[in-house]
């Protein structure tokens, strides 16, 4: 980001200062608390939908809430590295929880679509094949399946360097998620475009860093894998 | 020309809202007793109108935002008094017709219609309104008029959704003249005997029950009779998905979703889909309008 030097000099330290003060609290926050807090909203929404608190069409409402939250969590997961690198906010400890929760929301989204929305088995397959936005959404889900299944220490040890390749699937998965949202919107709507822009920026930040690294030189040993 | 059509959907009796609500509770309460069979067959018909809340809180009216609750939240900002409709084009008496003058000339009757959205949800709405044919007769349809074009109010200061070019405002719709003059086609001015709420298209809107809901244009300020097929908002924006006719047809899918079935609003979280009817159940009344036409081509 190229801001005028004086603006940058004034704003930047203030932002990073505030964020830096958050870090000690974040270090104290146990990961299980994030899992718990993240798993609660879908339960609450399900209860709201079943008791008439999600409007007169609770099926679509639930489906959209889950889908949008899954996309937001995927984006948050994608933002962990840039947040630390550029703003000094350290969420690395929670990255796995964020990713696993994103997949949980996504699975719920898919289940609501299958069981409550479409209902008719023949139509499910027809929709996947014939409706491009559903094809794209399903492809995104399938691409996120391997990273979700390997989000555990055993898989990290077992897969070694291949683990990172598997988890790069998230980049494609999140783009497909944003595209899925754009394709299902009627007319020219602004929200899916905002999501896609954020996804684009987060992916570009990664490309930038990769290009800066000099080819051929090994990374410093103590550096965390930053991809 | 009023009273040319008799409701085939019924309240059972002319059910006021609170009685209707009670009836649903009664049906639910009967389950498990010996009377459940009779009650079950009654509810299986799903001919009872949707509740006032359902009809007035789940709307598409993009001038107020693209969310289903946006119209109920923001449409109160729209001033509907005074209101006039400009009727022009191929008519004998072109001009600005005030809403009050129109109402004083028209016979308002109740029409309980199925309402099917292109998004595959549906409702049963007890409209109050008059036949569009009567209004057009008042303006005097000229020889040579073949189509009717409609326009929704565009007043950005009262319509937050128009800050975005979701569609090319103002919203436009159109009908072939024989569709416009069909006895089923009405201008609705009320629901459940009350003035139509802003989010449902106050003070007057079109209702064409055998077509997808977006054809039933809301808050109309202009009607133009022409000899050419008028451009309509959705078919201009996405011609591959929306055509001029947009008749409800379970056999012709929208490219992004199937039109074979629909979900009736009001069934809750575990509501079952039901098959969509040809021409939304008005096949006997309107199929003859499209005789010899390929409905897959003219979608």
TrEMBL record, chain B:
Its EC number is 1.8.5.-. Heterodimer of a catalytic subunit (MsrP) and a heme-binding subunit (MsrQ). PANTHER family: PROTEIN-METHIONINE-SULFOXIDE REDUCTASE (PTHR43032), PROTEIN-METHIONINE-SULFOXIDE REDUCTASE CATALYTIC SUBUNIT MSRP (PTHR43032:SF3). It is an enzyme of class 1 (oxidoreductase). InterPro entries: MsrP, OxRdtase_Mopterin-bd_dom, OxRdtase_Mopterin-bd_sf. GO terms for molecular function: oxidoreductase activity. Gene3D superfamilies: Oxidoreductase, molybdopterin-binding domain. It catalyses: L-methionyl-[protein] + a quinone + H2O = L-methionyl-(S)-S-oxide-[protein] + a quinol; L-methionyl-[protein] + a quinone + H2O = L-methionyl-(R)-S-oxide-[protein] + a quinol. Binds 1 Mo-molybdopterin (Mo-MPT) cofactor per subunit. This is Protein-methionine-sulfoxide reductase catalytic subunit MsrP.
């Amino acid at each position: 980001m190229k801001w005028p030097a004086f603006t940058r000099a004034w704003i930047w330290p203030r932002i990073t200062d505030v964020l830096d003060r958050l870090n000690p609290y974040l270090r104290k926050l146990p990961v299980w608390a994030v899992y718990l807090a993240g798993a609660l909203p879908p339960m609450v929404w399900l209860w709201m939908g079943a008791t008439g608190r999600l409007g007169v069409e609770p099926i679509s409402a639930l489906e959209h809430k889950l889908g949008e939250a899954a996309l937001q969590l995927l984006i948050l997961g994608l933002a962990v590295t840039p947040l630390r690198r550029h703003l000094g906010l350290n969420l690395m400890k929670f990255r796995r929880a964020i990713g696993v929760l994103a997949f949980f929301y996504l699975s719920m989204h898919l289940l609501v679509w299958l069981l409550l929305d479409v209902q008719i088995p023949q139509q499910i397959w027809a929709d996947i094949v014939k409706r491009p936005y559903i094809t794209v959404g399903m492809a995104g889900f399938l691409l996120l399946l391997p990273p979700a299944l390997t989000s555990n220490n055993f898989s990290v040890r077992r897969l070694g360097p291949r683990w990172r390749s598997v988890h790069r699937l998230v980049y494609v998965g999140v783009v497909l998620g944003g595209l899925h949202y754009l394709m299902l919107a009627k007319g020219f709507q602004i929200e899916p475009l905002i999501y896609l822009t954020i996804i684009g920026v987060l992916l570009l930040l990664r490309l930038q860093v990769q290009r800066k690294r000099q080819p051929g030189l090994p990374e410093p040993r103590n550096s965390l894998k930053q991809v | 020309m009023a009273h040319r059509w008799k409701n085939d959907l019924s309240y059972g009796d002319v059910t006021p809202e609170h009685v209707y609500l009670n009836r649903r509770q009664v049906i639910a309460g009967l389950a498990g007793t010996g009377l459940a069979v009779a009650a079950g067959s009654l509810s299986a018909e799903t001919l009872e109108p949707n509740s006032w809340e359902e009809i007035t809180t789940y709307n598409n009216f993009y001038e107020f935002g693209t969310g289903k609750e946006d119209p109920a939240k923001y449409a109160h900002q729209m001033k509907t008094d005074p209101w006039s409709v400009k009727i022009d084009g191929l008519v004998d008496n072109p001009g600005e017709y005030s809403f009050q003058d129109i109402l004083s000339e028209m016979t308002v009757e109740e029409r309980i219609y199925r309402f099917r959205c292109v998004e595959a949800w549906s409702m049963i709405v007890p409209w109050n309104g008059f036949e569009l044919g009567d209004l057009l007769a008042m303006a005097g349809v000229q020889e040579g008029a073949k189509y009717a074009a409609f326009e929704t109010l565009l007043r950005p200061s009262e319509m937050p959704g128009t800050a975005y070019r979701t569609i090319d405002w103002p919203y436009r719709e159109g009908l072939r003249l024989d569709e416009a003059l069909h006895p089923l086609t009405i201008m609705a001015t009320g629901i459940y005997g009350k003035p139509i709420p802003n989010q449902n298209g106050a003070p007057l809107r079109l209702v064409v029950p055998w077509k997808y809901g977006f054809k039933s244009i809301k808050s109309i300020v202009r009607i133009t009779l022409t000899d050419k097929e008028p451009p309509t908002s959705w078919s201009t924006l996405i011609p591959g998905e929306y055509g001029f006719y947009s008749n409800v047809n379970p056999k012709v899918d929208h490219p992004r979703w199937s039109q074979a079935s629909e979900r009736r609003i009001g069934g809750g979280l575990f509501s079952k889909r039901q098959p969509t009817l040809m021409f939304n159940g008005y096949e006997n009344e309107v199929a003859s309008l499209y005789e010899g036409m390929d409905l897959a081509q003219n979608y």
